[in-house]
Specification:
seven-stranded mixed sheet, Rossmann fold, single chain
Amino acid sequence: MMKIGICTGGGDCPGLNAAIRAAVKHGIRNHQMEFTGILDSFNGLQDRPMRTIPLKNTDVMDILHRGGTILGTFNRGCCFSGADGDHKLQLTKEGFDELKLDALIVIGGEGTQGMSSQLIQAGIPVIGIPKTIDNDLPGTDTTIGFSSCVDLVADSVHRLRSTAESHDRIMILEVMGRDSGYIALHGGVAGGCNVVLIPEIPFSWDSIISKINFRKKLGRNFSLIVVSEGAVPAGEQTQQFQTTPDGRQVLGGIGQIVGIRLQKETGMETRVTVLGHLQRGGQPNPQDRLLASQMGIHAIDLLAQGLHNQMVIKKGDRITHIPFSDISANSRRKISSDDQLLKAAEGLGICLGR
């Protein structure tokens, strides 16, 4: 009987529980596997005493639709870099060996999967499942959580449209994405916004103002703008950061910068909405439930075949896998200059700030 550990790492997102459910149900039902849930990412293996829970069929009942993760997660402090990185890696390996696990299924984004590569080098067999609302993990066309996030952004644009039109305002929606603009682009186009600003295209103030003024000439006295938190004006290299209550610096604030500038330049009343962690929460939509379920099943099939150190991916309409060695550690996928949705956006008259 194979003994498999499962953990979720990085920020939470819709669909994590669906992936856990699929792996456990398929592994127990069809391959007689035994599962241990590692709590709070790799921390559960590093802490002494270790923090783990058994995972049986009854433990994953009725979690398909639930947001978050029943295993908990952590997106800072448990990494294998820094002064105590080697010690944490050693504790993780010792915990894995003490539990007599045969492999670890790691559900996470680029940071977590980068740490998985280090676990592999330390001798721990890993199967990775990609999740992140940012959709920035290399090797896969899409990640768990992205589709649900796009749904929320598109719906938010629709809601802002009615108030923008009623008050003749510029409404700005700031979304997550770090260095990749997938959330802003997909959510903005799906929501019918007028301007989308993404990190991959440094934006021109004149381009945005021209778009707003053109709409005013057409009698459209309002505009909707979706801006990714990592977007920057042309000629500037530094992204905007804000200080959290506990003193950390996090991306954010570009929406306010854009709002202040546009109100000054256009004379139009401007309001800014920051979606923030709303983008991570809530139930997964049907598309994320299906993707997570398929990826969880594929992960188990790989282990049943004796394959390790692979990351499950989606390419086209197929769920497949690639070796971790094909993934650059801690790298992020960005929107390419020839992305078809970029072309579609400009074909629809959406200003991309250029």
